[in-house]
Design brief:
- This protein is an alpha+beta fold.
- It has two domains: 192 residues, Ribosomal Protein S5, domain 2 (2-Layer Sandwich); 126 residues, 2-Layer Sandwich (Alpha-Beta Plaits), CATH 3.30.70.890.
- It has ten helices and eleven strands.
- The longest helix has 19 residues.
- The chain binds L-homoserine.
- The site of L-homoserine has 13 residues, from helix 5.
- It is found in: Cytoplasm.
- Pathway: Amino-acid biosynthesis; L-threonine biosynthesis; L-threonine from L-aspartate: step 4/5.
- Its EC number is 2.7.1.39.
- It comes from Agrococcus pavilionensis RW1.
């Protein structure tokens, strides 16, 4: 915990005023980017939005967009909701009594597709708590990364969701750290999103405990190269997105993803699994190459049983934001 947070408040100290409200906006993310397993991540211009009001007690959640309703794929609307849990985690960590929370979420990030929806939900909750705690306890950006990583387990999705752009995330004895970088303007993004979903837990269970030394060296070289390719030399993206640490091990759980990546790479495109999958991210070195990759995805979508949707996206450079909602405008 940072000095800004530690010991600043206890149960007899200041509390969040009932009626205080904040608005939060958090981007989707693509993690790993090929060789940068659990390390590299990119913020994308698809966003979840959230309004949270401090109430007397209890947790209420209204959801529209992705995850709304009560059927399959609906998100919980009680205290088990991931955004609410993340907000409550912050109050617990900073030692300030949690107010009741009324959440209204408008979600656009697809769930279970490797586009950072759980990381975005966690960052949304953490940023909402930060905003509600304004003037009560200072929650720094480093604290936001720390609290979000405590819930997510690894920092590669939450870092770009918080800071935007390209992020390198690592963990040392002080906790999660990050470096944010601007992506070269020649890089253009394509995300192919399938109808199928993938569980990150399942994907992680397919990873071996140990890997050959040669494979570790292989990924070291490619991930170092990838930082250069994304920031300075997009023409190196194809070589820089090779990986031997995770995609092969997980391929059996997402054969369509593997096949599409194979087809795109055979045509010279820097295609990788987005996060834990099953979406595919293409890091194109120019707009014409991106359109050609999109055509390959669309052609595959017409095959029986295939449901790929090609989305032309951009890098989100702002990251997650939180702002107060004036009391006259709060619901
Ligand atoms: N680095 C993570 C993984 C991203 O691939 O398992 C998904 O949470």
């Amino acid at each position: 915990m940072s000095d800004a947070v530690s010991g600043m408040a206890d149960a007899s100290g200041p509390v969040v005023p009932v009626g205080r409200a904040v608005r939060v906006r958090v981007p989707a993310t693509s993690a790993n980017l090929g060789p940068g397993f659990d390390t590299l991540g990119l913020a994308l211009n698809v966003h979840d939005e959230l309004e949270v009001t401090a109430t007397e007690s209890g947790v209420t959640v209204e959801v529209s967009g992705v995850g709304e309703g009560s059927g399959e794929g609906a998100v919980p609307t009680d205290e088990s909701n991931l955004v609410a849990r993340a907000a409550l985690h912050v109050f617990d960590r900073v030692g300030v009594p949690a107010p009741g929370l009324a959440l209204t979420a408008t979600n656009s990030i697809p769930h279970g597709r490797g586009l950072g929806s759980s990381g975005a939900a966690i960052v949304s909750g953490v940023l909402a708590a930060k905003g509600l705690l304004e003037g009560v306890v200072d929650v720094s950006d480093d604290d936001v990364l720390r609290f979000a990583t405590e819930l997510e387990g690894h920092p590669d999705n939450v870092a770009p969701a918080i800071f935007g752009g390209l992020t390198i995330a690592w963990v040392d004895e002080t906790g999660p750290r990050h470096k944010q970088l601007a992506v070269h303007r020649g890089v253009s993004l394509l995300v192919a999103v399938p109808e199928a979903t993938m569980s990150t837990k399942l994907a992680r269970s397919l990873q071996p405990e140990a890997v050959p030394h040669a494979d570790a060296v292989f990924n070291l070289s490619r991930s170092a190269l990838l930082v250069a390719a994304l920031t300075q030399s997009p023409e190196l993206l194809f070589d820089a997105t090779e990986d031997r640490l995770h995609q092969t091990y997980r391929a059996s759980a997402m054969p369509d993803t593997s096949a599409l990546i194979g087809e795109l790479r055979a045509a010279g495109h820097a295609a990788v699994v987005s996060g834990a999958g099953p979406s595919v991210l293409v890091l194109a070195s120019d707009p014409a190459a991106r359109l050609e990759a999109a055509r390959i995805v669309e052609e595959r979508s017409t095959a029986p049983g295939a449901g790929w949707h090609a989305r032309l996206l951009a890098v989100d450079i702002r990251g997650g934001t939180v702002e107060p909602i004036p009391s006259s405008a709060a619901a």
